[in-house]
Automatic annotation (TrEMBL):
<dbReference type="GO" id="GO:0052757">
    <property type="term" value="F:chondroitin hydrolase activity"/>
</dbReference>
<dbReference type="InterPro" id="IPR012341">
    <property type="entry name" value="6hp_glycosidase-like_sf"/>
</dbReference>
<protein>
    <submittedName>
        <fullName>Glycoside hydrolase family 88 protein</fullName>
    </submittedName>
</protein>
<keyword id="KW-0378">Hydrolase</keyword>
<dbReference type="InterPro" id="IPR052369">
    <property type="entry name" value="UG_Glycosaminoglycan_Hydrolase"/>
</dbReference>
<dbReference type="GO" id="GO:0000272">
    <property type="term" value="P:polysaccharide catabolic process"/>
</dbReference>
<dbReference type="InterPro" id="IPR008928">
    <property type="entry name" value="6-hairpin_glycosidase_sf"/>
</dbReference>
<comment type="similarity">
    <text>Belongs to the glycosyl hydrolase 88 family.</text>
</comment>
Length: 320
């Protein structure tokens, strides 16, 4: 999906048909996942925003429109009306996880606003707002840091516990979760206009200024070993550029200039331009593993790097 999203951004920028054709082939292959259904989870937002939404915005394809609405309906079906949240993952190894909510899902919620706009059915927007409000109350802490995972009682919505997830541990702050909070809250602010949605950015900026604008995998991990995640930087940079569109003029430069500093820091040290090598953005980390850093190119790092650069150029395709 992120590869297809990159291709759509490149097609929008260049109008080169090969990018569109390859992206559409990927979208068609994803159709088998829609048909099977069982393996789909909260990430249908990512999967079809970066494929079918992009396709529909560029080509007005009726098939893409149907795929997006199908995906949005699946996402809405994961909503717990008593707990006011969209559950994250599916059952695994006997663990049902019906009350699990993750910070990443802020990026999936805009798919529901798309469905509301296209169908004029307010249920989609209602579900999205309730879910985002739940995340803002429990996954986002008062100081702007985040819990990656919150576990709620699926029968009444009461918070049972928090989990470290892909971060250092319980009570820590997984930096990519922080980046999802920055970008996801900015996207949802576009629809809900609640300023509290933008609180994560300042916590993030305070931390990356201490490490040359290259984020650690977890902001509350032990000082050693030092583990970084460049994917965090580009997700956050694109999110900060989004925030800059909505804040008062006096605050615009803080977020815009910070995004530029992040992109410059990455481009100076962590970009691989050899076409024979895998990936563009190096030193991405899937999660925190103390003493076993596995820093490598990751496809979503390349997507958000391209998206952020095109935003700076004023040439991006607005898919979210």
């Amino acid at each position: 999906m992120f590869w297809a999203g990159t291709l759509w951004q490149l097609y929008h920028f260049t109008k080169d048909e090969k990018y569109k054709q390859t992206a559409q082939n990927i979208e068609k292959q994803l159709g088998t996942a829609l048909a099977d259904f069982r393996g789909l989870d909260h990430d249908v937002g990512f999967m079809w925003t970066l494929t079918a939404v992009a396709d529909y915005k560029e080509t007005k394809s009726a098939e893409s429109w149907t795929r997006v609405l199908h995906a949005a309906t699946i996402l809405a079906g994961r909503y717990n009306p008593k707990g006011h949240f969209i559950k994250a993952w599916n059952p695994e190894n006997g663990l049902y996880r019906n009350g699990w909510v993750i910070i990443d899902s802020l990026m999936n919620a805009p798919l529901l606003y798309w469905a509301q706009a296209e169908t004029h059915d307010p249920k989609f927007g209602y579900i999205s707002k309730k879910h985002v409000n739940k995340i803002m109350k429990y996954n986002l802490r008062a100081d702007g840091s985040v819990n990656h995972i919150c576990v709620f009682d699926p029968k009444n919505g009461k918070l049972l516990e928090t989990k470290g997830g892909q971060g250092y541990g319980v009570g820590s702050c997984w930096s990519r979760g922080e980046a999802w909070a920055i970008y996801g809250s900015a996207l949802n602010y576009k629809y809900a206009k609640k300023m509290k949605y933008l609180n994560a950015a300042n916590y993030f900026l305070a931390n990356i200024q201490q490490t040359g604008f290259i984020p650690l995998v977890d902001f509350r991990a032990s000082k050693e070993p030092v583990e970084i995640d460049t994917t965090v930087a580009v997700i956050a940079a694109s999110g900060l550029l989004e925030i800059a569109k909505y804040v008062p003029e006096a605050e615009h430069d803080l977020y815009y200039d910070s995004a530029i500093k992040i992109l410059k820091a990455l481009s100076a040290k962590y970009v691989e331009l050899d076409p024979e090598k895998m990936g563009i953005l190096t030193h991405g980390s899937v999660n925190y593993v103390a003493g076993h850093a596995d820093e490598k190119p990751i496809i979503y790092g390349d997507y958000f790097y391209a998206e952020a650069l095109l935003k700076v150029l004023g040439k991006k395709l607005q898919v979210w």
